[in-house]
Write a structure and sequence with these properties.
40% of the residues lie in helices and 22% in strands. By secondary structure, it is α+β, with helices and mostly antiparallel strands.
């Protein structure tokens, strides 16, 4: 996928907000977060709700989120 250009010749970067609060949600979204971070033109922005932060901490560390 090529980057989209806007007027002035600057490339546009898309920020994608991913919100989750449970360990299963984090596990499901981890591949998407990784893929977005590898693609030019996309910046994943992660928002953790803190619903189950103790269990989430392990998953976030494991997937380097």
């Amino acid at each position: 996928m090529s980057e989209t250009t806007i007027s002035g010749g600057r490339s546009k970067s898309w920020k994608v907000l991913l919100v989750f609060g449970t360990r299963p949600e984090a596990i499901k979204l981890a591949p998407l977060i990784r893929e977005l971070s590898l693609r030019p033109g996309f910046t994943p922005v992660v928002c953790v709700t803190g619903q189950h932060w103790r269990m989430l901490d392990q998953v976030l560390t494991l997937f380097r989120i």
